[in-house]
Amino acid sequence: MEVVGQLTGGVAHDFNNLLTVISGNLHLLWEGADGGKASPDLIVRALQAVERGADLPQRLLAFSRTQTLQPAALLSKLGYQIIEAPDAKAALALLRRSGSVDLLFSDIALPGELNGTDLAIEVRAGAPGIKIVLMSGLAQSDVDGEKAAEHGFHFIQKPFGKPVLANTIRKALDG
C-alpha cells in the first residue's frame, strides 16, 4: 500500500507540474504574446479545464500523503533574474556564493536531506532580510503551515498561473 501511495504522489506531482506549465502558457497567450492569433474562447475554456484538473492531484495527494517534487522556476517571464538549484544543499551553496538575493522561491518537497521549509529557515537564519515564497501541491495546512507562518513565509498552491505567481512574489517582496 505504501508503494501505491508513493506512486500516487508521483503522479499527482507530475500532473501539478503539467497544469502549472499549461496554465502559464495559456496566460501568456491570453495577454497577447502570440500577436493576438489565439481565440480568447479557446483560451478561457483551456484555463477552466486547468482549474478543474487541479482537483485531481489534491485527491491523489490526500490518498498518498507523500510527494517528491522538483522545484520549478517559472519566474523569469516576470522580469526577475533566476538562480536555479537541483536541491536544498545546492541552493544553500549558491546563495552563499551569490551574495545578495532578494527572494527564495522553493517547493516544499525537495530531493535530498532538507525540505523547502527547512531550506527557508536555514536561509533566513543567514540572511534575515530575504523574502521567502514556498510552493506545494498539498494544501497549506498539510505542509508545515504553522512552521511556515511562524517564520513569515509566503505560500503558493500548485498549480498556479502567471497572475497568481506574480501577485504572490510582489506581495512577498513588498511585505
Task: Explain what the structure shows.
The protein folds into two domains: 2-64; 76-174, Response regulator (Rossmann fold, 3-Layer(aba) Sandwich). It has 175 residues and is mainly alpha-helical. The protein has helices spanning 2-30, 40-53, 55-64, 88-98, 116-126, 145-150, 162-174; strands at residues 103-107, 131-136, 154-157. The N and C termini lie far apart (43 Å). The protein has a three-stranded parallel beta sheet, sandwiched between helices. The protein contains seven helices and three strands; from the N terminus they run ααααβαβαβα. Mean pLDDT is 76; it is low at 65-71. The radius of gyration is 17 Å and the shape is globular.
CATH architecture of the largest domain: 3-Layer(aba) Sandwich
Class inferred from helices and paired strands? mainly alpha
List SSEs in N-to-C order.
Answer: HHHHEHEHEH
| CATH H level, superfamily name of the largest domain | Response regulator
Extract low-pLDDT stretches. 65-71
Number of structural units classed as domains: 2
Mean pLDDT: 76
For the CA atoms, what is the radius of gyration?
A: 17 Å
Question: What profile does the largest beta sheet have?
Answer: 3 strands, parallel
Spatial order of strands in the largest sheet? 1-2-3
List keywords for this structure.
175 residues; mainly alpha; Rossmann fold; 3-stranded parallel β-sheet; 7 helices; 54% helix
Produce a short descriptive summary.
This protein is mainly alpha-helical.
Topology:
Blueprint: H1 2-30, H2 40-53, H3 55-64, H4 88-98, E1 103-107, H5 116-126, E2 131-136, H6 145-150, E3 154-157, H7 162-174
Parallel strand pairs: 1-2, 2-3
Helix pairs in contact: 1-2, 1-3, 4-5
